[in-house]
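We emphasize that the prediction below concerns an isolated chain of 244 residues; any contacts that depend on oligomerization or on bound cofactors are therefore not represented. The input was used exactly as deposited, without trimming of termini.
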Amino acid sequence: TLINSSPGNSTSCLWELGDGNVLTNCDSVNYNYDQAGCFDISLTITTVGGCQNTMTMSDAVCIESGPIADFSTDPNIAFTEDPTFNFINESSGATSYQWFFGDGLGTSTEENPSYTYPTEQDGFYEVTLVAVNSNGCTDTTIRRVEIREELIFWVPNAFTPDQDKFNETFQPVFTSGFDPFDYKLLLFNRWGEVVFESRNAQVGWDGTYGGNIVKDGVYVWKIEFKDKYTDERYERTGHVTLIR
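Result of the prediction step, given as a token string:
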């Protein structure tokens, strides 16, 4: 707020604000500077008789730069086996920092903290960084981090459908990271004939075909499945030995 305290009656007034802008108002004026720095301000008044007088104040106002909050993470995506992120502070103009890691528990005032999320569940968390400068001015940025299940599966190489209640069926075992709604298992005999098909990862082959137990031997399996996060499709093949 610039206050005109000139005595007498002025017919016109010219404020030169030091940033290239001017105002023509004999009352007190409000002005917002949109850049940092110190600025000279001049006020020139003209009276009824045409006389002029100018007053200049050097560095009449100084505008401090506000902080800019910014950060990145390493890694970009973490997995449930090791849900740890290193936060790389890329802020400018700040002297202190406040971190909120989005799980309702973790906070930090370190410049470049690391944080391990106390969870085995995948999902997103919103991380907030508040950057503070020496004048107490703040800036805030929010970024999301993601924790995923790692794609883990294994396929047995033999099974024994002999009615002893152990190792009775053949099926790939997925522990995490796949889309259970996009899955297919095929079993082939040595002539390339399909002897079993399943689209349910919980349902395996019991060694039968057409209602009868097939012969001992080696059978070819093929599985098709999709990554639950990237939609990338996979196809894997191998052999399994049926032993009665």
